[in-house]
C-alpha cells in the first residue's frame, strides 16, 4: 500500500465514523435513522451498536478505497474502448463487494443478536438500510435508504 | 472527438485526489467536488447540464444514454433487492454461516453488475463531451460520483439525496 494511502484511509475512517454518528440538533444521522428503524434503546443498546459501527467504518475504509479505484479503472477502460479487458477488474470488484457486504452482514449479525423479538422483526428493513453504509465518508444522510435498491 | 486518453488521465488524477468524498447528503449526490461545482436542488441531468454546459443536442444524447441505462438496470435493481433480502432472511432464520456467505456472494454479484452498468453509462456520457468540456476535471469528478447508485431508484433524473446506495 502506498504511504499516502495510510493517511487517506485513516482520515476516511474517522470522517466516516463522524458522519455516521454525529449528534446535534440537525437532521438525523444515519446511525440515528438505523436506531430508529429498530427502535433501539438509547441507553442499553445504542452505545454497543455505535461502537460496532465505528469499528466497521475503520475496517471498511480500505475496502471502499479499493472499490473506488476499481470503478475508476472500469470507466477508464470503457473510455479507451477496452471493454474486453474489464473481466479481471470486475472479478476484483466482485471480491471487494463481497468483502464489503460481508462486513455489513457481520455487523448486522452482531446487532441482530442483541435485539428483542419485536425488534428482530424489523431486520429486513434495517439491513437494507445499511447497504453501502460504510463506504462513504462525507455527510451521508438525507432521506432513508433504498437499501438494496428500490 | 474528445481525446479519451486525456479524459482517462483526468479520471486517474481526480480519483487519486478525491479520496473518500464519494457522496454528500441531500443535494450532494456526487459529493463535494471541491470545486464548487455542485448545485443544490438540481436533478442529475440538470447538474450535468450546468456542470459541463451541455448544449441542447448533447443534453438530449445524455438523457437518451441514461434512459437506456436505466432500462437495462431494472433486472439488476431487482436482483439487488432480492439478494439483500436473502441475506436478511438468512440471518433471521439462523442459517449456517456458509449459507449466509453464499447469500452475500449473490448480492456482491449484483452489486458488481450494477457497477459495470454505471461505469459504462458514465463513459458513454463523457464521450459526448467536447475537448473543453472534458477538460473540466471537477465536472468529471462530479459525474463519477454522481452515477453511483444512480439507477437504484425507478427514476434516475431526480435530485440526488445521498440515499441511493448498495
Task: Provide a compact summary of the structure.
The complex is a heterodimer of chains A (150) and B (166). Chain A is mostly helical and 150 residues long.
Descriptive report:
The complex is a heterodimer of chains A (150) and B (166). Chain A is elongated, with a radius of gyration of 17 Å. Chain A is an all-alpha fold and 150 residues long. Chain A is built from six helices and no strands. The longest helix of chain B has 37 residues, at 56-92. Chain B contains six helices and no strands. Chain B has 166 residues and is mostly helical. The chains are: A mainly alpha (150), B mainly alpha (166). Chains A and B meet through helix 1, helix 3, helix 4 and helix 6 of A and helix 1, helix 3 and helix 4 of B.
Topology, pairings included?
The complex is a heterodimer of chains A (150) and B (166).
Chain A: H1 3-21, H2 30-38, H3 46-79, H4 87-113, H5 117-120, H6 123-129
Chain B: H1 4-18, H2 44-52, H3 56-92, H4 97-126, H5 131-134, H6 137-146
Helix pairs in contact in B: 1-6, 2-6, 3-4
State the end-to-end distance of chain A: 36 Å
H/E series of chain A: HHHHHH
SSE order of chain B: HHHHHH
Describe the biggest sheet of chain B? none
Q: What low-confidence regions of chain B span 5 or more consecutive residues with pLDDT below 50?
A: 16-37
Query: Which bin fits the share of residues in helices of chain B?
Result: 55-70%
| Biggest sheet statistics of chain A | none
Question: How far is the N terminus from the C terminus of chain B?
Answer: 34 Å
Structural class of chain A: mainly alpha
Number of helices of chain A: 6
Descriptive key words:
heterodimer; A: 150 residues; mainly alpha; 6 helices; elongated; disordered C terminus; B: 166 residues; 63% helix
Amino acid at each position: 500500500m502506498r504511504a499516502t494511502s495510510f493517511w487517506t484511509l485513516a482520515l476516511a475512517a474517522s470522517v466516516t465514523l463522524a458522519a455516521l454518528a454525529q449528534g446535534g440538533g440537525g437532521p438525523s444521522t444515519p446511525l440515528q435513522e438505523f436506531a430508529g428503524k429498530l427502535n433501539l434503546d438509547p441507553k442499553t443498546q445504542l452505545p454497543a451498536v455505535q461502537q460496532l459501527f465505528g469499528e466497521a467504518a475503520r475496517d471498511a475504509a480500505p475496502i471502499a478505497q479499493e472499490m473506488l479505484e476499481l470503478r475508476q479503472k472500469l470507466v477508464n477502460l470503457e473510455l479507451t474502448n477496452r471493454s474486453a479487458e474489464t473481466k479481471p477488474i470486475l472479478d476484483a470488484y466482485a471480491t471487494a463487494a463481497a468483502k464489503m457486504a460481508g462486513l455489513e452482514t457481520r455487523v448486522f449479525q452482531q446487532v441482530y443478536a442483541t435485539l428483542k423479538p419485536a425488534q428482530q422483526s424489523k431486520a429486513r428493513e434495517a439491513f437494507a438500510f445499511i447497504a453501502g453504509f460504510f463506504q462513504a465518508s462525507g455527510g451521508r444522510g438525507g432521506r432513508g435508504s433504498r437499501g438494496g435498491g428500490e | 472527438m474528445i481525446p479519451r486518453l486525456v479524459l482517462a488521465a483526468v479520471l486517474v488524477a481526480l480519483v487519486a485526489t478525491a479520496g473518500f468524498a464519494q457522496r454528500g447528503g441531500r443535494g450532494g449526490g456526487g459529493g463535494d467536488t471541491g470545486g464548487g461545482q455542485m448545485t443544490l436542488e438540481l436533478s442529475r441531468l440538470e447538474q450535468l447540464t450546468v456542470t459541463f454546459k451541455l448544449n441542447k443536442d448533447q443534453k438530449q444524447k445524455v438523457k437518451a444514454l441514461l434512459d437506456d441505462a436505466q432500462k437495462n438496470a431494472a433486472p439488476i435493481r431487482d436482483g439487488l433487492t432480492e439478494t439483500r433480502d436473502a441475506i436478511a432472511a438468512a440471518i433471521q432464520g439462523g442459517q449456517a454461516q456458509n449459507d449466509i456467505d453464499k447469500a452475500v456472494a449473490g448480492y456482491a454479484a449484483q452489486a458488481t453488475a450494477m457497477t459495470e452498468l454505471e461505469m459504462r453509462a458514465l463513459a458513454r456520457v463523457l464521450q459526448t463531451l467536447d475537448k473543453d468540456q472534458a477538460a473540466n476535471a471537477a465536472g468529471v469528478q462530479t459525474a463519477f460520483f454522481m452515477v453511483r447508485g444512480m439507477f437504484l431508484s425507478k427514476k434516475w433524473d431526480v435530485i440526488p439525496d445521498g440515499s441511493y446506495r448498495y
